[in-house]
Amino acid sequence: MNLYHSSTTTTTTTIFTVIFLLLAILFTLTPHKANGATCHPEEEAGLLGFKSGIRSDPSGLLSNWISGTDCCTWTGVECHYNSTRVQRLFLTGQKPETILSGTISPTLSKLKLLDGLYLINLINISGPFPNFLFQLPNLQFIYLENNNLSGRIPDNIGNLTRLDVLSLTGNRFIGPVPSSITKLTQLTQLKLGNNFLTGTVPQGIAKLVNLTYLSLEGNQLEGTIPDFFSSFTDLRILNFSYNKFSGNIPNSISSLAPKLTYLELGHNSLSGKIPDFLGKFKALDTLDLSWNKFSGTVPASFKNLTKIFNLNLSNNLLVDPFPEMNVKGIESLDLSNNSFHLGSIPKWVASSPIIFSLKLVNCGIKMRLEDFKPSETYFYDFIDLSGNEISGSAIGLVNSTEYLVGFWASGNKLKFDLGKLRFGERFKFLDLSRNWVFGKVPNSVVGLEKLNVSYNHLCGQLPKNKFPASAFVGNDCLCGSPLPPCNKA
Ligand SMILES: *[C@@H]1O[C@H](CO)[C@@H](O)[C@H](O)[C@H]1NC(C)=O
Ligand SMILES: *[C@@H]1O[C@H](CO)[C@@H](O)[C@H](O)[C@H]1NC(C)=O
Ligand SMILES: *[C@@H]1O[C@H](CO)[C@@H](O)[C@H](O)[C@H]1NC(C)=O
Ligand SMILES: *[C@@H]1O[C@H](CO)[C@@H](O)[C@H](O)[C@H]1NC(C)=O
Ligand SMILES: *[C@@H]1O[C@H](CO)[C@@H](O)[C@H](O)[C@H]1NC(C)=O
Ligand SMILES: *[C@@H]1O[C@H](CO)[C@@H](O)[C@H](O)[C@H]1NC(C)=O
Ligand SMILES: *[C@@H]1O[C@H](CO)[C@@H](O)[C@H](O)[C@H]1NC(C)=O
Ligand SMILES: *[C@@H]1O[C@H](CO)[C@@H](O)[C@H](O)[C@H]1NC(C)=O
Ligand SMILES: *[C@@H]1O[C@H](CO)[C@@H](O)[C@H](O)[C@H]1NC(C)=O
Ligand SMILES: *[C@@H]1O[C@H](CO)[C@@H](O)[C@H](O)[C@H]1NC(C)=O
Ligand SMILES: *[C@@H]1O[C@H](CO)[C@@H](O)[C@H](O)[C@H]1NC(C)=O
């Protein structure tokens, strides 16, 4: 008891000593905060200039930006640890609360030691690329993401040679990716996605050898994907989805193995075969080649993608045989709309303990749904098995999923009593059109967001509902709004 007591006292004393020392250190290191609490007057003026460029700040994000108070304590302002000079401006919004409207005032050029400008998800910040950034010699990080900036990316962007990150993702920039970008050789991240950029990818990007993240998705870029990847030794994320790229997957992508984790080329016009070398990407987390014109078979080397979580090969021209994968836990799989004849839902799908999205539309599956016995259904959100020849009942599968959001199985041979289908609280979408489903339409479906049970063998009076007639037509004897009224027998 005594021992315990004395050791507690010792601990307490030690803690106080440590706190005292820390305070003393803080005190000596931050004299500005102790003596009057103001920051560099020029920088305060620069920040207040930024504030006056913001027309509307409904959430009061900048409400503590008040003249005469220490600007190092203002929301989003980070000063150098040992001085009163502003090092970073970091403002990030959350929809819909923190939307800022206005422009980025050039008075920010007064923050001479700024090394990072982060204006993220502010949605309604408009105007051109802020040209005053060229006057900030220390600038290393530019994150102007998900705002409403427009115009061209300046041709002399290459002057910002100290840049480590350039992200202009999610704005309205037009025109080409300037070729001077090739001078930004210290870049580790170049993110220009979700703008309106046109033209081709500058060959000079090959000089940005330290890139780990290259994303140009969601633009209108065209031409082939340059065969320049052998110069990158550290690239982890490559996202060229949603553009107009054509041609083959270039061979030099092979040199990104084994480090590459995201390869996203979906929604382009790429063609040719899926290269064998993709099987070498041992660290691949996500492979999205969907909505292109890839043809031929999926390489047998895909057996070696044992750690892949997300695989989307949908909407291409791929043919059998599909390789037997060795992946332990696929999270999302989409093989829809190719020319596969899978026969059944693959075993490596049923055995995944973490799968949340399974889309096998038009995959030539001919099985009884009862024979699909997933080892774990806890994570399932979406199941789309439309356009196959699946027979039997969906009752067991849908019932076993706790959090399913949508089940689509249009155009199969399912045959069960709709009245016995049970679904969980998050369930919103049900499409069983063009099957052999029978029974009555139960009350439980009226709260769904979307429903389609047309062209089945349902009968009886519909519960009061908000769905259009096309959701119910083509059944044996359904009646009641929106279909014609039931005959009183
Ligand atoms: C702050 O520290 C850096 C090095 O860490 C030094 O170069 C700079 O002179 C210091 N600034 C002040 C105001 O002490
Ligand atoms: C964005 O700015 C425009 C033009 O100034 C304005 O009409 C609109 O209401 C703003 N939107 C939001 C969500 O604040
Ligand atoms: C973004 O700016 C454009 C003009 O460039 C304007 O038409 C549009 O309403 C703005 N968007 C928002 C969300 O304010
Ligand atoms: C950018 O570089 C060009 C030459 O490449 C030079 O003429 C120009 O003055 C520079 N602009 C700025 C703002 O530094
Ligand atoms: C790439 O990064 C390394 C290590 O940070 C650095 O030494 C090298 O100078 C960088 N390369 C270029 C071209 O900047
Ligand atoms: C790639 O781009 C797509 C489309 O914008 C997006 O959904 C996806 O999250 C992006 N992936 C990465 C790793 O940035
Ligand atoms: C690919 O499939 C996944 C899972 O179904 C989905 O989240 C993703 O958006 C798809 N990608 C494209 C480009 O459609
Ligand atoms: C899988 O990888 C191993 C070793 O890396 C290799 O020997 C084998 O050929 C690969 N399998 C396929 C089908 O490519
Ligand atoms: C399959 O293709 C049809 C049209 O051919 C399209 O409407 C549907 O969205 C595609 N399904 C998937 C999951 O990609
Ligand atoms: C599945 O069926 C069991 C037994 O009938 C029932 O207790 C459970 O609530 C059902 N689950 C769902 C999601 O409807
Ligand atoms: C229901 O499915 C049928 C046939 O698949 C289709 O023609 C109809 O437009 C769909 N209706 C609704 C509301 O989705």
TrEMBL record:
It is a peripheral membrane protein. It comes from the Eukaryota. InterPro entries: Leu-rich_rpt, Leu-rich_rpt_typical-subtyp, LRR_dom_sf, LRR_N_plant-typ, PGIP. Pfam families: LRR_1 (PF00560), LRR_8 (PF13855), LRRNT_2 (PF08263). Residues 41-79 form the Leucine-rich repeat-containing N-terminal plant-type domain. The keyword Glycoprotein applies. The keyword tRNA-binding does not apply. Residues 1-36 form the signal peptide. Its main location: membrane. GO terms for cellular component: membrane. GO terms for biological process: defense response. Belongs to the polygalacturonase-inhibiting protein family. This is Putative LRR receptor-like serine/threonine-protein kinase IRK. It comes from Glycine soja (Wild soybean). The lineage of its organism: Eukaryota, Viridiplantae, Streptophyta, Embryophyta, Tracheophyta.
